[in-house]
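Sample pair:
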Amino acid sequence: MKPLTAFSWGYWGWGNHTRDFVGTVDAVERARGKRPPIFVDIRFSRSVRALGFRDSAFQEMVGKSRYRWLEKLGNPHIGGIGKRGIRIADASGGDDLLQLVSTAQRDHRRVIFFCACERPCNCHRADVAALLVKSARRRGMALKVVEWPGGDPETIDLTVSDQVVKGVLRGRNRVPLTGSSRVRIRKLTALPWCSRVGLHSGGGDIAIISGPARLAADWYLPVIGPDVSRPTDTVDSIRVEAERLRKSAGYRPITA
């Protein structure tokens, strides 16, 4: 059997844009030679504020054939009074998830298992990823688990306005993609986490650490580092910080 790949994901910020996200994911996977992926919901409860993920809303949007709710892999401490930390409801859910990943591959699909948290480092999906890898090792199966959209960090260049550079230097955590072509945006939605992006303007150049493009009122690239941007930041000078962030935030793949 070919090595398996599974993606983790946090829907933070996508609650009002689920259709856009799924359309983006499907296009990226098609470009990789894959069919639309299966979404596995690993929340213990679906009673949430995000409209697109409340109760059965996401299931209804993608269709029953592309959605599974694995409540076993939820964290019952979320929302529990006086309860802290992470506890997976039923660790046998790791075996169930591995079976879904394996079955999906035979159908030329991948699995994206998800919850709400923005980053994997403080989220129970990291524990679920570890369970999945453990299950694969017991069965002698090769598996990689990585935060969507996967891939190794890249170094790219982006032409922006002087105002965008000034905004980042003042602490703005978004680089607007207003006016970018559909092709450009589609490419940026697959930008691996902790990629280094050189921002070039007529008034000066800086570099940021970023990840896949996101959608709010318009498309944008998130600025996830450095913690404090400086006019002297270049794609070379932030290399070490990008690697540190990739490890500390949980974006490195784990393998069996």
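Residues 155-248 form one domain.
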